[in-house]
Amino acid sequence: MAAPLRDNDSLLAIDVGEITTRAVLFDVVAGQYRFLAVGTAPTTAAAPYNHIGEGIHNALDQLEEVTGKKLIGEDQRLIVPGQEDGSGVDTFVATMSAGPPLKVMAIGLLEDISLKSASRLATTTYARVVETLGLNDRRKSEAQLDTILSQRPDAIILAGGTEGGASHSVLRLVEMVGLACSLLPKEARPQVLFAGNQALIGEVQSGLRSLTNLHIAPNIRPSLDVEQLAPAQVKMAGIFRTLRARQVPGVSELDAWAGKQLFPTATSFGRIIQFLSNVYDPAKGVLGIDIGASAMTVAAAFAGQLSLGVYPQLGLGRGLTGMLDAMSLNQITRWLPLEVGPDYVRDYIYNKMVHPATVPVSAEELAIEQAIARQAIRKGIALASSDFPKTNSQARADLLPGFEPIVAAGSVLANAPSPGHSLLMLLDGLQPTSITTLVLDQNHLAAPLGAAAKINPILAVQVLESSTFLSLATVISPISSARSGTPILRLRVTYESGDETSFDVKQGTLEALPIPMGQSARLHLHPLHRADIGLGGPGRGGSVRVVGGALGVVIDARGRPLHLPEDPGRRRDLFKRWIWTLGG
User: Fold this and answer.
1) In 10 A of CB 271, how many CB atoms?
2) H-helix or E-strand spanning residue 462
3) Is there a contact between 278 and 331 (Cβ–Cβ < 8 Å)?
4) pLDDT (tens digit, 9 = 90+) per residue, 36-66?
5) Containing H/E element for 135?
6) CB-CB contact of 157 with 173 (8 Å)
7) Of 60, 238, 310, 573, which has the maximum CB count within 10 A?
8) How many CB atoms sit inside 10 A of residue 170's CB?
């Protein structure tokens, strides 16, 4: 029996990205919530407009043209709620990722405890930690104060002291932050988030509230062995909203439309991954990855417990500066399927940093962009995986744990020449293990649905069930130490028609089974040479039912981790063979 719908049925979501602004409309069709249409326009936060409103209205104009629905009134404001003549919408949500990363300073007591948690909290939104200060910092108090004054952070995360624990040392840090704020001009004073010993809230308020905007969150380290970031993440989202309204013209108006509930896009993306983890197998968890121009977002959730990492240094726009600082050019060029000189690659990267809205116009540029995406995914997963819960079963600690499903978003994936290109980027970058489904958010709906889920969870559930996302493939990734060319998996496939086929998969190969989209089949899996396919340990097999995606079922037996040949020519030949296998 279908769940009853709310009185307010239609929902409009605006997402202001670094490059593109999207207006997404959801409404009820035949008694079910459905994604109707999206309008897109270039984001206008930068010159010559310097106001996001122009991009928002352009996206809404396109959406009105596509749907025939009037959304903006004569006063140039959004029509909310919907009217009897069909104009307007009943509810509205907004998300945003545009703008430079916030400059955040993390201050705590112990480097491996409260200071580490404060830094981790900063990575849950579009921010970069410009400096850290801890109890063991050897700089004199004057030098620490000068550091705050010279960095001029947008926000300070102040943590320290377990519940009922340290107080004097924490208050010394509070005093230093207060002194720094008093020496800065009012317009340059940072937002301060206190997330330490709750017994000190009164004294913290007395010391800081008159000097700057003070936010209080529950202790992020209530005890030495417990870290709780979720409540403080809500406060960080509010700080992001406040600072963006100050930095970017038009944000205040958008926030007013959204009822003062404008969310960072990454926060909403994480929320939908967390939402999905309550639906799927809690033992495996759900992984989400969003490859944006402003940042790389990695969200992993296990039974509703979310781990969220946002990495501006891995964005495919201005974030490329940080990527080149963090890795060598060879780590990018090793993923190239074409022979392209390093100078050409470097020039393309620098041009992309200056003009992030540019798109590849040649085979070489497309290859470079996809190579960058692969390496960004590798780096993002490496950074995020240290925060994944350790309770889930996985074959080896240095490999990605099993997830079901993996949801991927980002224009570099959605705009790839074929689903095969998208899937191969994900397989190379993520290197998943066991048996999982890779799903592509081709319409950029994950973040809008995450924002909508807070006010209308039924909408989020029904849209997710409507096959709006593209299932790329069910992927089986055996883990084996066998030599290349050795059979490591015996596979028997029983199709819906009753037909059967059997074959062996060899180590080092990539195979595709053409099971049509939406059709089911049963796979009988028998690992050889103690290969591990995630069904209970090395050598353990079984029978699983799968549903075909755009590329059917893919068996990635290339090895975990994936080792590429040193010889560039051999690497290029392999890339061409792999993309041919996936129909690219």
Assistant:
1) 24
2) helix 457-464
3) no
4) 999 999 999 988 899 999 999 999 999 999 9
5) none
6) no
7) 310
8) 26
Give me 182's structure tokens.
Answer: 């008093």
pLDDT for 352 beyond 60: yes
Give the separation between CA 232 and CA 418, rounded to whole angstroms: 40
In this prediction the pTM is: 0.92
Instruction: Give percent above pLDDT 70 in the chain.
Output: 97
Q: What are the φ and ψ backbone dihedral angles of 169, each rounded to 5 degrees?
A: -65, -40
Q: Which residue has the tokens 């060029």?
A: 333
Distance of CA 101 to the CA centre of its chain: 15
Q: How far apart are CA 266 and CA 451, in angstroms?
A: 10
Backbone phi, psi, residue 163, to 5°: -65, 120
Phi/psi for 35 (5° steps) reads: -75, 125
**Which 3-state string (H, E, C) describes 281-325?**
CCCCCEEEEEECCCCEEEEEEECCEEEEEEEHHHCCCCCHHHHHH
Measured from the Cβ of residue 573, the count of other Cβ atoms closer than 10 Å reads 13
Q: Are 17 and 316 in contact (CB under 8 A)?
A: no
Is residue 146 within a helix (H) or strand (E), and if so which, with residue range? helix 141-151
Residue 572 CB-density burial (10 A; 0-12 exposed, 13-18 middle, 19+ buried): middle
Q: Distance between CA atoms of 268 and 272, rounded to whole angstroms?
A: 6
Nearest to 345 by CA among 493, 37, 24, 327: 327
Q: How confident is the model at residue 274 (pLDDT cuts 50, 70, 90)?
A: very high
Of 462, 387, 338, 329, give the one whose Cα is nearest residue 35.
462
**Strand, coil or helix: 345:** helix
- Cis peptide bond prior to 405, omega within 30° of 0: yes
Which ranges of 155-309 does DSSP label H, i.e. alpha helix? Answer: 168-183, 201-208, 230-247, 251-257, 265-277
Question: DSSP letter at 483?
Answer: P
- Whole-angstrom Cα Rg for the chain: 25
* Kind and range of the H or E run holding 404: none
Q: 427 or 161: which carries more pLDDT confidence?
A: 427
The amino acid present at 129, given as its one-letter code, is V
Q: Is 331 helix (H, G, I), strand (E, B) or coil?
A: helix
Q: Which residue, 243, 247, 374, 389, is CA-closest to 314? A: 374
What's the chain's average pLDDT?
91
Question: For residues 129 and 141, what is the distance between their CA atoms, to the nearest angstrom?
Answer: 20
Whether the upstream peptide bond of residue 561 has omega within 30° of 0, thus cis, is yes
Rounded CA-CA distance 448/394 in Å is 32
Q: How far is CA 158 from CA 155, 180, 307, 412, in A?
A: 10, 13, 21, 37
Q: Give one DSSP letter per residue of 529-583, joined into a string.
A: TT-B-SSSSTT--EEEEEE-BTTBEEEEES-SS----SSHHHHHHHHHHHHHHTT
Q: Of 93-97, 216-220, 222-226, which gets the smallest average pLDDT?
A: 222-226
Copy the structure tokens of residue 25: 């409309």
Measured over all CA atoms, what is the biggest interatomic distance in the chain, rounded to whole angstroms? Answer: 78
Given a cut of 60, whether residue 546 has pLDDT beyond it is yes
Q: Is the pLDDT of residue 460 over 60?
A: yes
Q: What is the amino acid identity at position 263?
A: F
Q: How confident is the model at residue 139 (pLDDT cuts 50, 70, 90)?
A: confident
